[in-house]
Amino acid sequence: MTSPLDRKIKITGPVVVTANRVADGVVVYRSPDGGWTTKLEAAAVATDAARARVMIAEATADDLRAVGPYIAPVELAEGGRVRPGNLRELIRLSGPTIDLPVTFGI
Amino acid sequence: MYIYDSIDRTFVTERVAEFRDQVARRLSGELTEDEFKPLRLMNGVYLQLHAYMLRIANPYGTLSSQQLRRLAHVARRYDRGYGHFTTRQNIQFHWIKLEEIPDALADLAEVGMHGMQTSGNNVRNLTTDQWAGVAPDEIEDPRIWAEIIRQHVTLHPEFSFMPRKFKICVGTAAHDRAALRIHDLAFRLHRNEAGEAGFEVMVGGGLGRTPFLAQTIRPFLKKRDLLSYVEAVLRTYNQFGRRDNIWKARIKILVHDLGAEAFAKEVEAEWQTIKDGPLALDSAAVAEIASRFVYPDYEALEDSPPAFTAARRADPQFDRWVDNAVNNHKKPGYAIVTISLKPEGGTPGDATAVQMDALADLADRYSFGEIRIGHEQNLALPHVAQRDLPAVWRALDALGLAIPNIGLVSDIIACPGLDYCSLANARSIPIAQEITRRFRDLDRQRELGRLHINISGCINACGHHHVGHIGILGVEKNGEEFYQITLGGKADDHAELGALIGPAVPYAKVADVVEDIAAAYLALRTSRDELFIDTLKRTGIEPFRDRIYAAH
Amino acid sequence: MPLIENGRIVEDRHVRVGPDDPIPERVPIIVPAQRFLAEADALIRRDGSLGIDWPNDRRVAELEPWLGHLALIALNFPKFKDGRAYSQARLLRESYGFGGTLRATGDVLRDQFHFLVRAGFDSFEVKKPADAAVFAEVLARYSVYYQPGADGRLPAARQRLQSDAAPKISEAV
After folding, report:
1. Domain limits for position C17
2. Among residues B13, B69, B90, B425, which one has the fewest Cβ atoms lying within 10 Å of its Cβ?
């Protein structure tokens, strides 16, 4: 499997860097201050390959806090709101598209 | 079922302690993810889309009520109140936190459960037919042999870092209910002409990108030689399996590349040097393991007790359920009850903590405290007295677990798919849900008869789509979900891989296509007695293909 | 890279000799496999302990003619996930009865110590000093194993058969 650092990074639109938090697996996004946020709207958005490349390299080096970072497409809606750019990212953000089993009396 | 002794308990406890340390070192940064990942996989810890996933082993799908209750506890305490039963007789929790996994594993270790080797490049859960020990058509309980193998391959120093995963199955019934031929290594216990019981050895099965059915490399292996033979196969694989390409790393590729004969020669050469060594199984060693298998203290009962037959006559719903979900037991007066985890609109194989606790109670009351998990993602109560069937049915019905759809079109096998899994290309659960809604009418399901649908959300084929009567494989095309449909797969003694019927179908059309396939079957069959799979065999897939693609 | 033998960190007495280096007199040496095979007769007659680096993708059967002359065989884990050297080690110990030093080299990490020992290694070029420091502690993690291993511990099956009482069934799980 090619490291994100080696793979040629080509982006066709705005992207974020996303991963999962090490301690609990929660979905996180790389934020502009070099941290991680669970809020997509607070994620750092890259619009060119060079910037994306820097972000993914830094994210990958931050192995302590987040695992498995990769570049994910986003859509920039009206007013600059950031939305997931494909079904997989939508599911990661909002959860499974199905109802979880009903849990009576829990 | 197998009862842990102090050695088994000590072992799982020590394993938990080691993993607790490994997690701590990961969280402190002492271990990088690259170093930690194989270690967590060896304990069944995956990273999924939203969270970690913990897969717990249920060796040969046998659980005690106490263990099932503990699974319910884990679901409640560490997850979101439910678990998912898998196509390898395991259970998965989809919302687990890494930092809590050592505690969850400690809770499970107390009742002899663990996540060892449910992932990683080692030997995975040993599976058998879920009716092992109670089916009328088996020659002896295969689980004893599965347990012997299981212990041997657990934390085995030589076979913990193999090219890829390795799945072993032990079967023994006249009919293969365990899908032997899709395993890397399978043993079929049978009698030779001399009446001696031994194993047919099959190697090289596996689905995924390049599906293969296992080939017989030795028609008869003595019981005494079981472990040394396993060792020889694994050693051959560990040395010569490919490590350069993850898609070519399973033993099926090695067997295919060398040819079964050359592969067998390699194994036999190795085996000859070790067969009389410490791995030779003497009767004392076998008896030792067998001694920890406890069997119910069955009553001496008669078949078809009057209360039971009367209930069948009086209540058509009960009668329908018996017809569908209840099977003969080797002991007169007893029965095997299959519990459907395939409700309309539900996720195949999921059970809530509430259901698990209730099933544990039912098992205590009516099944000598024992439950089984089948690879088709249903459960079973293996020792129900026929006189208790009406009460069991009412209890299951109240839990939503008595749908008489076992083996029918809505008894779908599906992987979690893109709703959960980071490997997936497409969703599988909503596809299954829609199909169950289209076919909600039980009369219609019964009209169609035995019809197995298998759905996988990616080429890894965890839904075993290659061996479904109807196989559905999710793929991604230009950011959209599409599904390849295959027909004619079988997982039984006459195992076969399905054939593609045509171009991939978009998400919204899959249920329509399944309805067209069903309609085609009804139009083409010679009689009600000709099963879907047999009609297909007779006509070939062209008539089906024609009808489906004509409609679209 | 710390070397562990006999459960503790030791000085490596062996000199690793490259493909073209002169062979030093009398000191223990480790030579690459290719060189050994090309110069086997001379190396065996040399006065001094002889070791080789053997790659993990060649059969150890090739070494059979010379096992009596080799004091040390170093096997390799290019990545710790590549477990071929475990099979090589067991074959050397158990099929060929090799009694010399078996050294683990490459990506040798703490979490593989107990596998390595049980596969028959008795010398370890440990990648991280912090791992070397806890070698003994890590090995003490497990008190039972299911399989026979090179560490001499009685596997579970044998322990059970040896206990005087009938097999104990602890309270039902």
Report:
1. 3-162
2. B13
